[in-house]
Each structure stands twice: as C-alpha cells, then as structure tokens.
Amino acid sequence: MFKTIFMKAVATTALTVGTWASAQAVDLQFYFPVAVGGGAADVIQSLTDEYVAANPGVKIDAVYAGSYQDTITKVITSARGGTPPQLSVALSADMFTLIDEDLVIPFDDFIKTDEDKAWLEGFYPAFMENSQTGGKTYGIPFQRSTPVMYWNKEAFREAGLDPDVAPATWEELVEFGKKLTKKDANGNVTQWGVRIPTSGFPYWLFQGLTTQNDVILANSDGNKTNFDDPKVVEAAQYLVDLSKVHGVMEPGIVEWGTTPKAFFERQAAIMWTTTGNLTNVRNNAPFDFGVAMLPANKRRGAPTGGGNFYLFKGSSEEQLAAAVDFVKWISAPEQAAKWTIATGYVAPRPDAWETEAMKAYAADFPAVTVARDQLEFAVAELATYQNQRVTTLLNDALAAAITGQKDAASALKEAQAQAEEILKEYR
After folding, report:
1. Position 1 in a domain
2. Which portions of this protein are annotated as coiled-coil regions (predicted)?
3. Strand pairing of 87-91 and 26-31?
C-alpha cells in the first residue's frame, strides 16, 4: 500500500504455448497500481515483456492507473461506461464492493484440470480469506502484504537496549518507547520512541492492535462489524495512550506517507508500516535496522493487505481465458519471487519461497521472511460491502479519539451504529 501516479505502457503479449490458444489475436486491458518508478514498475514491465516474448497471440494494454483508490475508481467508471478491463489488480478489501457492483467473475469458472485446482489451492490461506466468499474465489493474491515493525538498531544501542531484540508485547512497546524517546534541553522531543501512522490507512494498522487484542472487526460475509466491542475500544485507547499517557508517540494524526522518511531521519526509532516498504527501507535507511512481527497482547496478530487480480464481466470467453492464463503465469513461483525481491511484498504462495532465487534472497536478507512467518497469526483485512463508506466511519472514529474530539468508546459506538445502518440490507 503506497502512493502511486498515473503511468501508461503498452506491451504486446501472448499466451503460453500449450496453455491457451486462439485462432485470432485477443486484446486485453488490465489496470495495475504500482510505485512511482523504481523497482515495482520496472519489474511489472519486465515481467510483461517476458510474457510477450514467450507468447505470441495476445495484445495487452497495461494501464498503471494510480493508487489503489484511483484504480478502483477507474475500474468502476470504465465498467459503468461499457468498457471494463478484462483484468485488474485492486485491493483485496474491495472484493465485496466489486461483487456488489456486479462487475467480477469468479476464477472457479476457469478451474477445470487437476493442475488448475492445485494452482488455486496453492496460495497461503491467510491471503485467501480476502479472496473468497460464498464458496467462490473472486481474487487471486499477488501484491500482498502485512504490516511489520521496523526498528533502528543504532537508536536501541544508544538507549541501552539490545539492538537485536524488538519489543514483543504492548507493555514492552511502551517500555522501549520511553527509553527511545529523546528530548533537547528545552524539553522538545527530537526522537519519538514509536510511530504508528494514523492517516492514509488508519484502520489497517489499527487492525493490528485489534487482532492482538483478540477481536475481529468484521465478519467473513462482509455484512457485520464489531467496532464497539470492548476489546476494540481497549485497542483504540491503547493507541491514544501511546501519545497522551505514555508520551512515546507524536501526538495528533501521524502521516502514513512520510513515515519511512521520518524513520530514516531518526524522528522515530520504531515504526509500523507495510512490508511493501521493505526494499525502500533496505535501500535508504542510513543505519542498521531490524524487522519483526507486530507485538502481541492477548495474542500475536496482524491484518493482511494489498492487492488481488480480479476478472471482469463484459469480456469475451477468449479474453477471459487469456486473462486467466496471464494471472496463472505471473503468480507462478519464479515470477512471484522476482516481484517479492523487487518490492518486499510477500510472495503469496509457499512454492515461490522454494525457488533458488528466493532461497538466496532470504539467506542474504532474512528480514524478508518476517511477514511470511506472520501469516500464521494474520487475519483478513477489514472488508465489507460498501467498504469505503464503512472503513471511513472507522477512520473518522479513530481520528476523533486521537485528536480528543471524542472519547474512544463514544466514537466507536457511533461508528458501529452508522455501519449497522449501512450493512443491515446485506444480511
């Protein structure tokens, strides 16, 4: 999950010989959210070029359509206008929105052979929670992530902490944070102990806290939320208290987009952000750093996140068959490994981690395995029908509690009542 801009590239592609064939050339269009230049865009382009070189017969117009929000807006607008893409990567959490809009087709319709079934069953179960509903598979995991905790080893050493040991519990996060928070002679903070972004995707990192407090924000059918559960309120109060009571985190709304930069510039010694920032941190942190799972409270836990491939209605059978073949190819172990190495996103299939490339990468950079191992404790990202409206309610409630406009319990109670009003028609 990171900021992107609009780019457009056209690549001539075709399908793997023996996998799919057509007597006529087939035109495909797919929308994809990628980073601003750099590794992600380069790798997607090189993978597309590789597919092109190996497979004559299909032309793909690849539209790199901006952020996740930009992409889903463009997909829906194009579909309503009668020109849907055949394929798009959109947030896994947008699955219910796409179903509600009657835009997508389940991949199950194209699973015909034992090999097809083995491919579909080969993804991590934690990622499939946001990809399946009602016994159907609507999304194929690709650009997937979890939030992880990064820490500055030099700052730990300076604070008298073991630089190789991250805080493992909520209590330790506060304890370490107090030792890591620095002030100048005038009492102004020059380095915060902890930085958990509360803008951009506040519900996502907050879901790390709720999962650790052993509560689920929404059911798997996407039609009921639990925003006012006492465990949710407790998690929100802990987030607020990091600033207001413990003094280890910057007060007010903490920006998502500037968090890596703040970490690099030693404005914070610990940050929570997506594993999708792993390559960015490796390339730009001017100090030794560590990566760990998020700390536990009642249990360990984190949400999954990131994007899935979706198939869209309004396409010919030939186009859809070609699109499925492309998805199968680009999600295969070798290609998934290339994507992970370039970006830090989690390779979504265990067999990708068995490739020689991934074995060598993990041996050289063990931090890449943290998010993978955290999948054992992961839950589905908050996803409901009318998802943007519902998550906005939670985001606004968190903002009200963080800025002191409302107490956490009242803010979440109001958000739950409003979410209930939106979702009751889907039950």
Report:
1. no
2. 368-425
3. parallel
